[in-house]
Every structure is written in structure tokens, then in C-alpha cells.
Amino acid sequence: MHTGNRQLFLQNLAQTSDEPLLLEVVEAAGCWLTDPEGKRYLDLISGISVSSLGHRRPEIVEAVKAQSDRYFHLMVYGELVQSPQIELAQALQKVLPPELNSFYFVNSGSEAAEGAMKLAKRFTGRTGFVAQTDAYHGSTQGALSLMSNEYYSNAFKPLLPEVLFIRQNDISAISNLPRNLAAVVIELIQAERGCMSATQEFAKAIRDFCTQTGALLVIDEIQTGMGRTGSMFAFEQYGIIPDILLLGKALGGGLPMGAFVANRELMMSLSQQPVLGHITTFGGNALCCAAAEQAVKITASELEQFRVAAKEQLFRRLLTEAGLNHITGKGLLLAAHTPSAEACKKIIRYCLNEGLFTDWFLYNPAALRIAPPLCISEEEIAFACKIIAQGLKII
Ligand SMILES: Cc1ncc(COP(=O)(O)O)c(C=O)c1O
Domain locations in the chain? Predict the structure, then answer.
């Protein structure tokens, strides 16, 4: 590793913790990252569920190059007719239920959560929200208000005042929720809690509660979407449809891209009283939309070939054989629970040394993150699990 660059990174770039991973990457392709010395690392986390099609998928590179010959940025979102936005909306429409037919393209997952919260307040005329305990919907102050974890949120209070929390799968708590909420915001698999799945009953009960009380159901598929759990979106596996869908991460095929999606009638309320209910300069950026359109089309057409369910089973079998028999999550959004946060950290360091790039979870530092590109091969899965098995022996 170039120690010079490492020092410049530490000196010049804002730091987010006192223990950054400090791996320098000079190139990434498919499932592999390369450092300045030419050492290769298998990417087991896809930049936190972003590079689901692998790094620099050729069709995405080509689409970005072709768009860069036309234009980058023209105007703030919502004024000019830009074909990359329209084509992305149409590609998404093909993989979504017909009622989710209006797309607001933004820059990140957090901004999608912000936009959805504002839309819910504006449309319902109500102000209260319910989120799940240990949910993560983003780091801006609205999204942060949906976070129950006080370690991460206390320093930034006051946040939005009217947010209540419900534990995932606590069906009995639903009937005690206020009946005048603007929205209930959920993730069907709580990724940062360590990939904890909602039961079918809980998801349906939340959907029914929202329908009965007029609260909007916001489903955050920023991490679960784009094929990661085996279907294009996790909500398909639950037989429910959100009023507002949040997308981000893998949506952009590696470029920064978020979206909140709703029915046209609902979405229209952001354009009236006041007009410009949500403003973004770069939202729907042409290069990002060109990349995202390809990401949506490729994911939809190749999802079956990726054999996400079979790869999940292979990970489960090999990790269990290695001694990690508590594995949660679905598809290629998995958490392998280790004995402790300390042990997990040691395994992560060992893996990095051996050419395997993995990480832990925000609320679950004792769990290893298994969220590779969906195109990972069976040989690569075997390689990853072998290193993890060796890592387990040194803790
Ligand atoms: C479920 C979920 N929602 C929202 C976000 C926020 O997305 P971003 O970091 O793009 O703002 C994240 C990011 O990790 C996430 O996992």
C-alpha cells in the first residue's frame, strides 16, 4: 500500500471514525478490487449493496460514455425534458406494479427518505411517523429522526419530534399505534440490524393498518431492492405494495442515484401548495440516469441467471461448515453472526489480509456482512468461505 496516500487521506479527508479500513483501490472490475501493488481482493459487500452487477459492468460504462457525449447537467430537477430520466422511469415502470408510476429521482438514499417523509406530510396533512427500532434510513436530519438508536442520534437532537418506534414482527403493538400518522416507514429485511427479516404476518398487518388508518406505507428498498434478495424488490415476496417506495444504492449501477416512487396522484401533491415541494439541483442527473437505466434492465433480464437463492444456500452451507451457524437474511443480503464484535473485527482484518473484502453492520458489529455482487461465481463463494473459515480459527 502507498503509505503516502494513506497519510494524505487521513490528513485531508474528513474522517468518519478512528478506524477506517484504509485499503487503497486503484481499479475495480466485476467482483474484484485491485490495490496499488496489484493485490486483488474479492468484494463481499458491493460497496454496501451498491455494485450488485459487479464493478464497471460494460453496458453501464458504455451508457455513461454515450451520455457524456450528449450532456451532463442541464437544469435543476423537474424543468427540462431529459430522455435519460424518461427512459429510466420507463424501465422501472416495467418492473413495478402499475400503481407505482411516478418517479422522483434524487441523489441518495437519505434524500429519497427525506422526500418521502415530506410527501407523506404534504399528502396526508398529518405529521407523525412510525419507524422500526434499529432502522437505518439515512443520515440527514429527517431520516435520522427515524433512527431509534440513541448512540448514533443523541448528539444531533432535537430531531423531528413526532416519531414513534415499533419492533419488527411485534404484531400486537400495531393496534396501539396512533391512527393519525402521516406514514409508517419499514424495511422488510432490516439490513443494518444484521439482515433481520419481517414475517409475512407482520408485513401484511402493517399494510392493513396503513390502509385502514390512511397512513402511507413507505417501504425502504434502498438495500433490499434491485434483485439483492432474489426478486427485483423484496415487497414482491410479501404480497404487499407500498404507497411510497424508496430506492437507492444499486439503482445507479455504481453512480449516485436515489428515488422515491409513488402513485401519480399522490406525487402530484409535491407540486402544489407550495410549488417546488422538493427541490434538487442534481437529482435525475443525466449520467446517473443513463447508468441506472442499464442497471434496471440488466438486473431484470439476468436475475434468474444470477441464481441468487442457490448462492444463498451455498453461502449458508459453507459458512455453517466453517462454524458460523447463525446466518440471517435473504438472498445475497446475509449476516453471518460471529461470537463477538471483537472476533468479527479480527476476522474482517484477517480476510482483508488474505484478499477478501468484508465488513460488519451498523447496529450489529458482531456480524459479518455477506452482500457480494449478484454475479459472484460459485468458485468465488467457495474462496470467500474458505478464508472466513481460516479467519475463524485465529479468533
Ligand atoms: C436501508 C437504507 N436506507 C437508506 C440508506 C441511506 O442511503 P444513502 O447512504 O445513499 O443516503 C441506507 C444506507 O446505508 C440504507 O441501508
Answer: 13-43+307-393, 58-303
Would you say residue 321 has pLDDT above 90? yes
How high is the pLDDT of residue 2? Answer: 59
Q: pLDDT, tens digit, for every residue of 275-298?
A: 999 999 999 999 999 999 999 999
Q: Mapping DSSP to helix (H, G, I), strand (E, B) and coil, where does residue 260 land?
A: strand
CA distance 371 to 47: 9
Percent of the chain predicted with pLDDT > 70:
99
Ligand 1 atom index nearest CA of 187: 1
221 lines ligand 1 (CB under 6 A): no
User: Strands 258-262 and 244-247, how do they pair?
Assistant: antiparallel
Query: Does the pTM exceed 0.70?
Result: yes
138 CA from centroid of ligand 1 (Å):
5
Is ligand 1 within 6 A of the CB of residue 137?
yes
Nearest-CA residue for ligand 1 atom 4 is 137
110 lines ligand 1 (CB under 6 A): yes
What is the 257 CA–ligand 1 centroid distance (Å)?
11
Instruction: Write out the H or E segment, with its range, that includes residue 129.
Output: strand 128-132
CA of 58 to the centre of ligand 1 (A): 26
Question: What is the CATH T-level fold of the domain 58-303, as seen in this structure?
Answer: Aspartate Aminotransferase; domain 2 (3.40.640)
Closest ligand 1 atom number to CA of residue 140: 11
Instruction: Give just the sign of the alpha carbon dihedral 99, 102, 105, 106.
Output: negative
- CB-based contact 233:240 (threshold 8 Å): no
Mean per-residue pLDDT of the chain: 97
CATH architecture of 13-43+307-393: Alpha-Beta Complex (3.90)
When pLDDT is averaged across residues 166-192 and rounded to a whole number, the result is 98
